[in-house]
Amino acid sequence: MADTIITHGYVVTMNPQRTIYSDGAVAIEGKKIVAVGPTSEILASHKAPQTIDASGKIVLPGLIDGHNHPNQYLSKGIGDDVDIMIWLQRVLAYESHLTEEEAYLGALGNFVEMVRSGTTCFNEPGSYFPDAIGEAARQIGIRGILNRSTLDMLQPGTELPENLYEDLDSNLRHAEEAVAKWNGAADGRLRAWFSLRHATSVSDQLAQEIKKLADREKVGIHCHAAVGNYENERSLKRFGKRSLVRLRDLGLFGSRLYLVHMGAPNEQEIDWLQQDDVKVSHCPSASMFGAYGVIWNKKIPEMVRKGVTVSLGTDSATAGRFLDMVRCMYLAACAHKDAYADPEIMGAYKALEMATIDGARGCLWDDAIGSLEAGKLADITVIAMDGIEWTPCRDPIRNLIYSANGKSVDTVIVDGRVLMRHRSIVAVDEEWLKRELERVSASLMERAGVSFVPPWPVH
Hints:
Largest sheet: 9 strands, mixed
CATH class of the largest domain: Alpha Beta
Number of helices: 17
Radius of gyration: 21 Å
Strand content: 15-25%
Shape: globular
Mean pLDDT: 95
CATH superfamily of the largest domain: Metal-dependent hydrolases
CATH topology of the largest domain: TIM Barrel
Number of strands: 18
């Protein structure tokens, strides 16, 4: 007997055949999906004490945010319309003054915003407070991957606050502690990887030692790399090699290496990515907001064409400015069309793959999430098609990505547990949380010495 059956939905399974049921149902028992198919067949073979009527709604696998910094949530707005190096200096000042309590509250806000727009899983590239991030994720009920921030060199052109610098031994000790504590926590809903914060801010020795630890623990390595042409120039100047050549020569390439942004690989490097099954996360909103050049460099569609696994990420509330994966899918579907002047280069259906099954594969979790199939974990997003933007609706997937946004999300389920029902978050009082976020953010900005003057006069 099932615990819950979602009925009469437009069920988009993302299974290998990409089956869609126009009047479909999903039966859930405990944490897992036990059956997916036409509503009539599922109801004939399964009974449950709880039924969720999804009439007029899309039922999707939970959306996966492949790259997100929850610890940056309280810095929202400090990097608007400025050069990337100014942005980075402000964020480093922010991170150097962030407390564990503030990191926890910010992560709560981050995860609530995620769940509200249908995200059920995140992959975090590294913070100095993995315990705070983990506890916030545990409370909200979201699935995710945590990392302890790991770097031992200054980014060229930046000044690293003294309290953020750690030597090799400290980096390795903190990273090992985070993986030991969080990998498999929250009944398996949380995992932990190792982080190389940025390819140009880690020494050769740190990179190689982290690879040894990741191989020992059989977990991934999350690293910003080959973001733009400027990074390759800096890497050549500092290390004598382009970023990806260096990482490959250090022995890091393999199926558990996860590289983010990746705006500037060359053809040879893309072939290496494919051959070694290196995973990539594309953050179109961050590139367009911060002028990284990822879209302009036209490499993401080339990686997709060659069979590299490419997920989608929002980056952060500061770097990409929103955490809505539906909006992110719109950018992934459309921005490359303009760069190539080709209306068929990506599109809505590929963007949805990137946010679901490809995201799961990138996170090394596709055996359990990313599609609606019997035996997989019940991470499900239910999207209402009741707004005027849905009318007329000839193709629900294209309407979702091209006409709607995350505000259409009605219900979110992770591990069979409802995190949001009819647009109401279950685990936290949002009004209280908003007040707390305003309070601690104002105090934090004052301590960090970050101030803002709008370009137009405000009276």
